[in-house]
Amino acid sequence: MTPDRETRERAVAGATATTRPRSRLDQPMPPRRRLLPEWDPEAFGRLSERIARFLGTGRFIVWMTVVIILWVVWNVSAPRDLRFDNYPFIFLTLMLSLQASYAAPLILLAQNRQDDRDRVNLEQDRKQNERSIADTEYLTREIAALRIGLGEVATRDWIRSELEDLVRALEEDHSDSHVVFPAERSPGRDTGDH
């Protein structure tokens, strides 16, 4: 390559092209170092739910009450050299504030996860209800079609009543016209009609 052509390519490509290497688009980028640690959001969410469940129990209130009573009794009745939090109990207030500041977000996180689960369950219930409604509508249409079809089908009772009506009508015609039916002919008598 000639030096003039090299300088022209550098000028066209820009200053950044010469200072950093070009990465290939068909290969993944190397992982970057992160300043913050990485954690599994699901594991953290499950842990927060366990803590929130414990914070919402009577056991937690009993244990918290026992710890506070022991704290106060110790810092009031212990020898002055062994007391670690004197009367206004500033350190106890700080610890309770710290506990509350961690408990509130953990409870909110657990509630958000529960809301997400409830939303998924509601969506599944809605889809199931839609399927059930569609199935019910289909079955209703099928039953209506069967009823319409059965209305057109000749039943045994209907055929019997129709035949009885025909027999009565024929008997009335027979009594009026004196026509001899084959059942009424005597067996030995030949009428000669063919």
TrEMBL record:
Bias (Basic and acidic residues): 1-11
InterPro entries referenced in this protein's UniProt entry, alphabetically: DUF1003
Superkingdom of the source species: Bacteria
Region of interest (Disordered), ranges: 1-32
Record field: transmembrane: 60-77, 89-109
Keyword Translocase in annotation: no
Keyword annotations of the record: Membrane, Transmembrane, Transmembrane helix
One Pfam assignment: DUF1003
Keyword Phosphoprotein: no
UniProt name for this protein: DUF1003 domain-containing protein
Biological source species: Streptomyces kaempferi
High-level lineage: Bacteria, Bacillati, Actinomycetota, Actinomycetes, Kitasatosporales
